[in-house]
Design a protein that fits this description.
With about 400 residues, the chain is of the alpha+beta class. About 35% of the residues lie in helices and about 20% in strands. The chain has two domains: about 140 residues, Creatinase/prolidase N-terminal domain (Creatine Amidinohydrolase, Chain A, domain 1, 3-Layer(aba) Sandwich); about 230 residues, Creatinase/methionine aminopeptidase superfamily (Creatine Amidinohydrolase). The strands form four sheets. It has a six-stranded mixed sheet, with helices on both faces. Strands 11-10-12-15-16 form a five-stranded antiparallel sheet. Strands 7-8-9-17 form a four-stranded mixed sheet.
Length: about 400
């Protein structure tokens, strides 16, 4: 049954109630512009952003109904009621049991509150919303009369408030410490797992919440294969060791990448490191309000292409970071620093920029920073020395 007057009880809110109210006001402004009376939100990050909802069960059915003129309604799995009541400011909940039809329960909850007959918009981009469920829900609520409610919350998320930046700064301090301890653990004979353990212990031991993505540690030929991570390999003399980490505070992350080398670096490694460093520095120098995301990518990419490494850099320069649930700490779908992207940068945007050059199945050299766009440029939020870490 619906619980429309849940007791306040103990609350574990990440932000003051006023912060959530300001976010809702911005979302409702866009809803009104798009003639949407009730927005149905299914994306875990968006629901967290608007309510504080923080659970490990975010892959379960989840619907946040945001009306223009009253507090939101949350429809969740019955087992999630407790965590919803504890981590959000909401008071109106409807639940669906494991033998119930969540679509029917959602339509019923909206109908009993007089919301089903209004102009409804439905997010079409939520990772855990199956096409079948989305189509059934849309049909039950009016079919073609239902509006596309995608990309209403995300533009608001792109600009971080002062309170959000406090969380990100704390996460960056933790990732700095994690990187320092990880690089200390790099030595001949150690395993990739040893390095990951050192990073994890430093970040979580220092106060990080559960990590959104596990530490990335790859060495030797494995470092030349993107999106692999630690797998028991023992570090050898002559290895490059790529380390990329992300700490987390109240679902807000800070990320950092560095490269270590065991032994005396070959000329190839030193040249690649120089190019990566200059490309990262160029991207940082290019960031300021009013420039395009594409121009920042160009500042990074130009250095790499002029050095002859274009074939090793087939990706974007960076991506937005903020609220995140596993498996991805990034918000690249909101803003990415990529070729020819016309999006204008604004103060309060936060980016992780990880230029890396990979020689497939041989080696990798990469380096990154997390930065925030300021009123007149940018501020680097991570502070580990920007250099190749050499273990002789």
């Amino acid at each position: 049954m619906a619980d429309k007057n849940a007791t306040e009880g103990w609350k574990d809110l990440a932000f003051p109630r006023e912060e959530y109210a300001a976010r809702l006001e911005k979302v409702r402004r866009t809803m009104a512009e798009r003639s949407i009376d009730v927005l149905l939100v299914f994306t875990a990050e968006n629901v967290n952003y608007l309510t504080g909802y923080d659970t490990i069960g975010y892959s379960s059915f989840l619907c946040l109904a945001v009306p223009l003129d009253r507090d939101p309604l949350m429809v969740i799995r019955e087992m999630e009621r407790g965590v919803a009541m504890s981590t959000t400011w909401l008071t109106d909940f409807a639940t669906t049991g494991d033998t119930d039809d969540p679509v029917e329960r959602t339509v019923d909850a909206l109908s009993t509150r007089g919301l089903a007959s209004r102009r409804i918009g439905i997010e079409a981009t939520a990772p855990f919303m199956t096409a079948r469920t989305w189509l059934r829900l849309k049909a039950a609520l009016g079919g073609d009369a239902v509006a596309d409610g995608s990309e209403i919350v995300e533009p608001v998320r792109a600009i971080k408030s002062a309170l959000e930046l406090e969380k990100i700064r704390r996460a960056c301090a933790l990732v700095d410490e994690g990187m320092a301890r990880a690089l200390e653990a790099v030595r001949e004979g150690a395993t990739e797992n040893d390095v990951a353990v050192a990073a994890y212990a430093a970040m979580v031991g220092g106060g990080s919440d559960p990590l959104v993505s596990q530490p990335i540690v790859t060495s030797g030929p494995r470092s030349g294969v993107a999106h692999t991570t630690f797998h028991h390999r023992r570090l050898e003399r002559g290895d490059t060791v790529l380390v990329e980490l992300g700490a987390c505070v109240s679902r807000y992350g800070g990320a950092l990448m560095r490269t270590a080398f065991i032994g005396e670096p070959a000329d190839e490694v030193l040249k690649m490191n120089d190019v990566v460093l200059r490309s990262l520095n160029g991207a940082i120098a290019a960031i300021k309000p009013g420039v395009t995301a594409g121009s920042v990518d160009e500042a990074c990419r130009r250095v790499i292409e002029e050095a002859g490494y274009e074939a090793m850099f087939r990706k974007r320069t960076g991506y937005s970071v903020g609220v995140a649930f596993a498996p991805d700490w990034g918000e690249g779908h909101i803003v990415s620093l990529r070729r020819d992207d016309p999006r204008l940068l604004e103060p309060g945007m936060v980016f992780h920029m990880p230029p890396a050059l990979r020689a497939f199945q041989r080696l990798c050299v990469g380096m990154s920073e997390t930065v925030v766009v300021t009123d007149n440029g940018c501020e680097v939020l991570t502070h580990h020395p920007r250099e190749l870490h050499v273990v002789r």
